[in-house]
Structures are given as C-alpha cells and as structure tokens.
Design goal:
- By secondary structure, the protein is an alpha/beta fold.
- It is built from 22 helices and 16 strands.
- The protein has an 8-stranded mixed beta barrel, surrounded by 5 helices.
- Helix 3 (102-127) packs antiparallel against helix 4 and helix 7 runs antiparallel to helix 8 (261-276).
- The termini are far apart.
Length: 639
C-alpha cells in the first residue's frame, strides 16, 4: 500500500474511531438523560398524588364543617373528627417533602391546626346549646378554612400543570435525542442504529409511564384529566359539553380477595378490552385505579351517556373465565354532563357521586342531578350513624317462629335485625343493610347478630326449652376462611350446641364462588350447625349445584307463597320447589304464610315448615318467650 493510501486509511480509521467514541459517548449521555427523566417523572407523580389527596381531604373537611355548623345535631360530627387528623397528616407529608413550596405549606399547616382548634371550640358551643355563638365563630373560621382550601387546591393545580409540563419536556428532549442520533447515523456506523433504537424505546417508555395504565394499557388518571380538560376547552367554542362516566365493578373486591390478585388482574385486563368496544375512536376509556374506570364522551348529545351505560352492562353480561372459574361481574355507572364553567375536578366528582347512587340502589347506572349530592351526603351520614348504632346497642333482634306444618309445633325462630333509630324509629333491614354491606362494618355486624342470637338461644334453653335460631349471613362471611372458627368460638362462649344454630344464605352467595362456599359450609356443618338456602327460587342455583351443597333446608321465597292460592303459576312454582327439595333430601320451609288457606295448600303439597304473620310477626325476645310458652316444646336434642 502506498504511503498516500496508508495515510488516507489512517485518517479514515481515526475518523471512524473518533466517530465511535462520539457514538458511545452520545449513547451513554442519552441513557443517563433518560434515566434522569424517568426519575423526575416518578418524583413528580408522587408529589401530584400527595397534593391531590390533600385537596380532596380539605374539601371534604370544609363540607362536613359547614354541615355541622348549619345543624347543631348533625350526624356529620364523627365524620368531621375522623377526617381532620387525615388532613393534618396529608399536609404534614407535603411539608416534610422536598416540595419547593414547603415553606408555604408549613404556613398552611399552621392555619389548618388553628382552624381545627377553632372547630373544637364550635363543637363545644354546640354541645352547650349555644347555637348562635357557634354559628358566629363558624363564620369567622370559614374564611380561614377557605384560605386553606384555596391554597391547597392552587398548589394541586400547579402540581398537575408541572407534571404535564414535565411530560411535554420529556417528550421534546427524547425527540431531540432521536434527531441527533439520526444525524450521526448518516456517518454510516451501525452503533448508531442501536443507540437510536434505545433512544426511541426510552422515549416510548417515558410517555407510557406518564399517560398509560401499566396493567390494561388504557390511559391513566393523569391522561384522562388532560383529555377532559381539552374537551372542556373545545366545549367553550362549540357549546357542546362533554359527558363523563365513572364505572365501578360490583363485587370485584370479593373476587380479588378470595381468588388472588393474579386472577383479579386477568379480569381487569379483559374488562378493559370489552369496555373499549363501547365507544367511538374519538372518545376516551381510562382506568383510574383498582376496579374503577372512566369514560369521556366528546362533543356529543348527553343522552348518549345512558346508551353507553347500557352497552357497558351488555358487554359485561358474558361471564369472565379465570383460573377455571366462570365469574359474573357487573358494574355501577355514574353519568355527568359538564355544566358551563365546570372544570375537570367538578365533572369527575359529579359522575362519581352519581355512580355511588347507582351502586347503593342497584340501578345499574344513574345520572347526576343537583339533589343527588344531598342524597349522597345523607348516605354518608347513615354510615356514620351505623357505626354509632352498633356501639350504642341500637341494633336489636326480633324473632319470628318457624312452625312444623303437620303438628303446629315451634321448631325454631329466625333472628331478624332491626335498627332502633333515635329519631326515625324502628327501621327494617331494607333501610340499612344495603348500605352496611358495602362498608367494613359488615363483619362486626354479622358477629353482633350471631352472638346475640346464640345468647338468646341459651336463655330459652334455661327458661323454656331448646329453640334453634336461624341467622342470615352475607356473602362476605362465606368468603372468609376464618368464619367457621368464629362460629365455633361464638357457640362455645354462649354455651349453645351447634344443633341450635342454622345459617341462612342466598342463592347468589353460592354462585359467586361455589367451590370456596362449599368448603366453608362443610366446615360449618362439621360443628353440628344446620344450613339453609334463603329466598329459594329467586336466584340461579341449579339442581346440580344443590346436590353438591352441604345444606339441610331450602326456604321458598314469600313472593311465591303470598299469592299461591289465587291461581296462576305461583302454586305450581311452590309445588315444584317442595318436590325438588324433598327429592334432594332437604327440609322445605315456606315464608310469608298470612292465612289459613295458604297453610292448608302448603300442607296438601307436603311442605315441612312454615313461617309468617298467620302465626306471628317478628317479636321482641320477651314477647317471643311469652308466645312460645303457649306452644308445645321441642323433643330433646341428642348428641
């Protein structure tokens, strides 16, 4: 090789080597830059969550304070006392963070502590009956509360804007890095290809982290807020307001707790896939977290919100198959159309309130109305009162006798809960059980009823004769692997044999998770406790499932028994239920017997046991004892 070519080769080699060094340096710089961006995104997301939580709690505190001041006997007092420590904790977390506005938040924290001290003074005035003085003090405190709330909301908004700005900055810097990498690619080095791919992958990862739910691939809460804000801006020009739907899966928590998070995640992924099919391409479906989803319907008639809710119900009708089990998942949907001037927080809040109404009333879906917020506040108050009711002994049990059809003997009593409300009088279960079942109070309530019923059974053993008691239990009990042990301990504490207890469960409870339910029921029956299917005929329990279930009796629902002597199909339905029960070796109980004709018809059909107003309504324990003394005693229990 001549010296000229050799020199040229060396120069090319030197250029290539230098280019390689530049490429490697660029790659390292790019990786470091992307790592910094990802770290920054995580920190910004955490800060946004802290501010959002503080904003929500402060708003809730202001609402409860206003309610307490407006009504001196308000039931919101326990809720106010409960939320105020959480407000302090939320503000303290921000004040202890590396937030650049930490000094301002320390001032807000001081203002909040002063406000809470003033709140205690207001409550003290109310307790002394000084309503006017409490109102005057409340008015003075209101400005301090408003200042705290305004500051917290302002910082929350700024934090969200900063988070969005960081997303934009991350996207812009990633694109710039890609452009630089492509420029180096012109030099012809294959190293640049790998660097470019890495850069693009990192950019997509950053954008995905900022705007996408990792499990379902749907937009996340932050992205949904951005889309909704854009839709609201467009609505100011077009005049056509967007509609937001909040969707919450009913019963998903029980499935998740029982079958595990892996199965729960599989269901959430399939739910997301089905929900995507309910809207147009220009609309948005997002996952807010847990089992909560949100829809944004852009520039469209508000009535489409109801149509979309019906499509949601339709796509969820088909069972979900996970871990070899077919599971039914339903949803409660809240609908809200943005009013002129509303921001993202307001329209999402309205949809969330409407969803709560739909869930509580089993409506499937509900549209937000002005009075809905008041109803939601009433339910919150009712929940707070329920906590007090359990502690104060306001929940009482009445007992309705169960009568053997052929002999007229008392063979048991069903325990029925009532709420002796201090202002509304004696409330039936339908007034408070639906609310209670969606709270953490359901477990202490079940324990309360079970314990009181067994202690009453012990009283009857000592003063009259053994009278078995039947207690209704919820689905959550049968999804609790520790429930049989709780029954055993309660029987022991009351000094009552298992044969004097019967647990009544509904068909829907069985279907939710048959295998798990069967295992729990077998362990319960091993204690000598009897089991019964309540409201038989209103659910979906098949003959095959009934054959597998460890149950002793079925109760024909009163809706069939009540009109069975009037002709029609009710008598046929009752007869079929009795025949099915007997073919499976089960005792059959008819509920809702209100006259002699119905009792005679049941006797002709071979029904074993009846209960209803024809014999006696649900009685207080003392009244039941007096009533039972006039009837024959039960035969002696053995074992």
């Amino acid at each position: 090789m001549d010296p000229v070519r050799r020199s040229r080769t060396r120069r090319v080699g030197a250029v290539l080597a230098a280019t390689l060094v530049v490429l490697m340096s660029a790659a390292m710089l790019g990786a470091w830059s992307q790592a910094r961006l990802m770290t920054s995104m995580n920190e910004a997301s955490s800060a946004a969550m802290l501010h959002q939580n503080a904003s929500r709690l402060v708003t809730q505190e202001q609402y409860l304070f206003q309610a307490v001041v407006a009504d001196g006997s308000s039931q919101e007092r326990p809720e106010l006392r409960a939320v105020q420590p959480r407000v302090i904790d939320a503000l303290q977390r921000i004040a202890d963070s590396s937030d650049p506005d930490v000094a301002e938040f320390k001032r807000v924290l001081l203002e909040e502590r002063l406000f809470q001290y003033g709140t205690s003074q207001v409550l003290a005035l109310l307790d002394r009956g000084q309503q006017r003085a409490a109102v005057r003090l409340g008015d003075r405190l209101e400005s301090r509360m408003q200042d705290v709330r305004t500051t917290v909301i302002r910082f929350d908004t700024e934090q969200q804007d900063q988070n969005a700005a960081q997303v934009d900055q991350a996207t812009s810097r990633s694109r710039l890095l890609s452009t630089g990498t492509i420029a180096l690619f012109v030099l012809g080095l294959l190293v640049l290809i790998a660097t470019g791919r890495l850069s693009r992958a990192d950019r997509r990862m950053i954008e995905k982290m900022a705007a996408e739910d990792a499990l379902t691939g749907l937009p996340n809460r932050t992205a949904f807020a951005a889309h909704t804000e854009q839709a609201l801006r467009e609505a100011r020009r077009s005049g056509r307001q967007p509609t937001v739907l909040m969707v919450d899966l009913d019963g998903f928590k029980d499935v998740n707790d029982t079958l595990g998070h892996l199965v729960g995640d599989q269901i959430l992924v399939e739910v997301a896939q089905r929900l995507r099919t309910c809207v147009r391409d220009e609309d948005v479906v997002a996952r807010f977290g847990g089992d909560e989803f949100a829809f944004l319907l852009r520039d469209i008639s508000p009535t489409v919100g109801e149509d979309t809710a019906e499509r949601i119900a339709s796509v969820l009708e088909r069972p979900f198959v996970a871990d070899g089990l077919a599971l039914d998942i339903e949803a409660s949907v809240g609908i809200a159309t943005a009013a002129p001037g509303h921001d993202v927080t307001e329209v999402v809040r309205d949809a969330d309130v409407a969803m709560y109404v739909a869930k509580e009333n089993h409506f499937g879906y509900s549209r937000f109305e002005d009075h809905t917020a008041d109803s939601a506040a009433t339910r919150v108050t009712l929940m707070g009162s329920l906590r007090h009711a359990l502690d104060a002994g306001e929940i009482v049990l009445h007992y309705q006798p169960k009568i053997e059809v052929g002999t007229g003997r008392v063979i048991g009593a069903e325990a029925l809960a009532r709420w002796q409300h201090p202002t509304r009088g004696l409330l039936p279960p339908s007034e408070f059980i639906p609310v209670l079942e969606r709270t953490s109070l359901v477990h202490p309530f079940n324990s309360f009823v079970l314990g009181h019923a067994l202690r009453q059974a012990r009283v009857w053993m000592d003063e009259l004769y053994p009278i078995p008691v039947a207690v209704n239990v919820t689905a959550r009990c049968l999804l609790d692997p520790g429930f049989p042990e709780e029954i055993a301990q309660t029987l022991l504490a009351a000094g009552v044999p298992g044969e004097l207890l019967c647990l009544e469960i509904t068909e829907s409870t069985i279907i939710a998770n048959p295998e798990f339910t069967i295992d729990v029921l077998r362990r319960v029956r091993a204690l000598g406790v009897k089991t019964s299917i309540d409201d038989f005929g209103t659910g979906y329990a098949s003959r095959a499932n009934l054959k597998r279930l460890p149950v002793d009796e079925v109760k024909v629902d009163h809706s069939f028994v009540h009109d069975m002597t009037l002709g029609g199909t009710d008598e046929v339905m009752v007869g079929s239920a009795i025949a099915l029960g007997h073919n499976l070796g089960l005792t059959v109980v008819a509920e809702g017997v209100e006259n002699r004709a119905t009792l005679d018809a049941l006797e002709d059909l071979g029904c074993d046991v009846a209960q209803g107003f024809f014999f006696a309504q649900a009685l207080e324990p003392a009244e039941f004892s007096r009533w039972a003394e006039t009837h024959s005693t039960l035969p002696t229990l053995h074992g």
